[in-house]
UniProtKB/TrEMBL annotation:
<keyword id="KW-0472">Membrane</keyword>
<dbReference type="InterPro" id="IPR050330">
    <property type="entry name" value="Bact_OuterMem_StrucFunc"/>
</dbReference>
<feature type="domain" description="OmpA-like">
    <location>
        <begin position="207"/>
        <end position="321"/>
    </location>
</feature>
<keyword id="KW-0998">Cell outer membrane</keyword>
<feature type="signal peptide">
    <location>
        <begin position="1"/>
        <end position="41"/>
    </location>
</feature>
<dbReference type="InterPro" id="IPR006665">
    <property type="entry name" value="OmpA-like"/>
</dbReference>
<dbReference type="InterPro" id="IPR036737">
    <property type="entry name" value="OmpA-like_sf"/>
</dbReference>
<dbReference type="GO" id="GO:0009279">
    <property type="term" value="C:cell outer membrane"/>
</dbReference>
<dbReference type="Pfam" id="PF00691">
    <property type="entry name" value="OmpA"/>
</dbReference>
<dbReference type="InterPro" id="IPR006664">
    <property type="entry name" value="OMP_bac"/>
</dbReference>
<protein>
    <recommendedName>
        <fullName>OmpA-like domain-containing protein</fullName>
    </recommendedName>
</protein>
<keyword id="KW-0732">Signal</keyword>
Length: 321
């Protein structure tokens, strides 16, 4: 809708006399930039949301805090009504409204399992609860919660039930750990009614870091850590973005696919992260931001490595801040 508004506005501007046309175009571009910056700032400002149990939860990175993708859904037995079997209902901000039924939430079914992924942020550990699950109804139905860095190896962090829907991941998180995946498993005890199992409206990272991802193919040639010319343009844009957001520190993480040995992938991913940092600090002279680097190798995939597309997605560099 906004795009169409700008197109119509520009069409009207082009009919103006030349001097007025240039001034109007300049003003339109400035206003569009301000609108975009304002929208982004609003999107990443902390938000406070009240759940069905009356708890108010603050999410540090705003709307970006919530799960973005369903990676797997295994409905329990018995399953729920068809209207509540769509896993995507658990994505994004909570949108359940009392009196509307549970059509805006996914019902897991008796013993059902739902796996979700964060893409523009990662779950991190800080003092207090780190993750919140929005369930529909006055009571939280017993559900087991696990987290993962790669979607393969899972760490159980406890359960939610009664009036408690937040979990602390400190028992499974070491310093610097980030988690991209969350698994919810219904306990399989209450299997009666039309909607057996937990009814999940949204899953949000209370404590999170934002992520900017760059495709490896844009930055580097195959088996190389030397930056391509195209990469330098994109890195300049990233530097400007970080400075505009007044970021004080960021971690640059290199990733590879699973082809080759673990030792080779670990080394290559670290060298690539170091190349990015060197360009930012020495060539662009980015000041005021402390960059650390890490090579993750193939240990933190965002997609399966058994397809060419999955491997392409896994070859990347991330800025985490």
């Amino acid at each position: 809708m906004r795009r169409n508004v700008y197109i119509n506005r520009i069409g009207s501007i082009m009919a103006l006399p030349y001097p007025m046309r240039m001034l109007a175009l300049a003003l339109t571009i400035v206003l569009a930039s301000l609108f975009s910056a304002s929208a982004h700032a609003q999107e990443t400002q902390p938000v406070r949301i009240e759940d069905e149990q009356g708890n108010t939860i603050t999410f540090e990175v705003g709307e970006k805090a919530f799960a973005d993708t369903v990676t797997s859904f295994d409905p329990g037995d018995p399953m729920s009504k068809q209207t509540a079997e769509d896993g995507t209902l658990a994505l994004g901000l909570p949108n359940y409204e009392r009196g509307r039924g549970i059509e805006t939430a996914i019902t897991l079914g008796c013993g059902g399992v739902l796996e979700l992924q964060f893409t523009d942020n990662v779950l991190i550990d800080r003092e207090g609860p780190d993750l919140h699950v929005f369930e529909v109804g006055p009571d939280v139905e017993p559900t087991f919660v696990s987290v993962s860095t790669d979607g393969n190896e899972w760490n159980e962090v406890g359960g939610i039930e009664g009036g408690t829907a937040s979990v602390d991941i400190s028992d499974v998180a070491d310093a610097g750990d980030v988690f991209r995946f969350v698994r919810l498993t219904d306990d399989g005890e209450d299997c009666s009614g039309n909607y057996p199992g937990a009814d999940i409206d949204a899953v949000g990272a209370i404590h999170a870091s934002q992520v900017i991802e760059l495709a490896g193919a844009l930055l580097f040639d195959l088996d190389s850590s030397a930056l391509r010319a195209e990469a330098k343009v994109r890195l300049r844009e990233i530097a400007e973005t970080l400075e505009k957001r007044e970021v004080e520190s960021a971690t640059i993480v290199g990733h590879t696919d699973s082809q080759g040995s673990a030792a080779y992938n670990d080394s290559l991913s670290l060298e690539r992260a170091q190349s990015v940092r060197t360009y930012l600090t020495e060539t662009l002279d980015v000041s005021g931001i402390e960059f650390t680097v890490r090579g993750a190798g193939a240990s933190e995939p965002v997609a399966p490595n058994d397809t060419a597309e999955g491997r392409r997605r896994n070859r990347r560099v991330e800025f985490i801040f």
